[in-house]
Amino acid sequence: MSGPLGKDLLALEPLSADQINLILDTAEPFKEISERAIKKVPTLRGATIVNLFFEASTRTRISFEFAEKRLSADTVNVASSGSSVSKGETLVDTARNLEAMRIDMVVIRHGASGAAKFLADRIESNVINAGDGTHEHPTQGLLDLLTLRDHFKSIKGVKVCICGDVLHSRVARSNIHGLKKLGAEVAVCGPRSLMPNAIDQLGVTIFDRIEDAIQWADALNILRLQLERMTAGYIPSLREYNRVFGVSRERLDRAPKDVLILHPGPMNRGVEIDSDVADGPHSVILNQVTNGVAVRMAVLYLLSGGQPQLAEAAKGGDR
């Protein structure tokens, strides 16, 4: 199956602004389904989708499951961990075996950058990247864009600073590509030890002090410190990181305007973000979770060959 996005969704970098806007526009009518008493439409009835998660995930996997089930698809979850699946051939064998069972789509999360493309090049089913190594996490980038668009009405000209562990973050890369394509001004802020070497080539402003970033920004997207990916030496201590780069109510109160707060989760409260910020009036963290289901429904719908102008009609059905 192939739709207006092509066969797969592997990254935001190759997408055009029109394609990104198409996904966001298609997500809008799907938001309303989640508010119904019966949260289901028959749009993907008969389709079989495999969630192939080679890395631990709660939020993303559950969000995809909700999206699939609300579109009436049949879903199979394959969770796998350990070294055997990190070898490319094993990954392909797993997928080919699944494909022999006549599946339609694969949602894959994998610890190796490029794993989703590696798989997509070798099977006929649609492939959706749910995060590959430190490369990209396109649906998280899309739900962040939708959340920003809900608040600001247009992303063009909005100043967004991505704060924290940019080095290990696939979310940061998807956000930078998506935001720049839609005309936002993008900055990053964090310790130099947690910045990729070539970050300046992505056309972003770099702040070394969180206070400067807060003064500049309309919105902060605060990244989790990915302690599981770090060997020793990136930061002196969690307490020191919070003291220097933590987003606190006190720091936000000094800003010239209200700053929107996003976080892809899961949060390290008291490290990169303080609880009174995460739960504060300018936090849209829970909106991001809600938008995640709608965005993933839109991606599934479009990849299955659904026509964007029919998304509104696709809401019909089981009331």
Report on this model:
By secondary structure, this protein is of the alpha/beta class. Helix content is 37%, strand content 14%. The protein has helices at residues 17-31, 59-70, 88-99, 115-120, 138-152, 170-181, 210-216, 238-245, 249-253, 275-278, 285-303, 311-314; strands spanning 48-53, 74-79, 105-110, 126-132, 159-163, 185-189, 205-207, 219-222, 260-262. The chain has a 5-stranded parallel beta sheet with strand order 7-6-5-8-9. Helix 1 (17-31) crosses helix 11 (285-303) and helix 5 (138-152) packs across helix 11 (285-303). The two termini are 27 Å apart. The relative contact order is 0.18.
Structure described in brief:
With 319 residues, the chain is of the alpha/beta class. The chain is built from 12 helices and 9 strands.
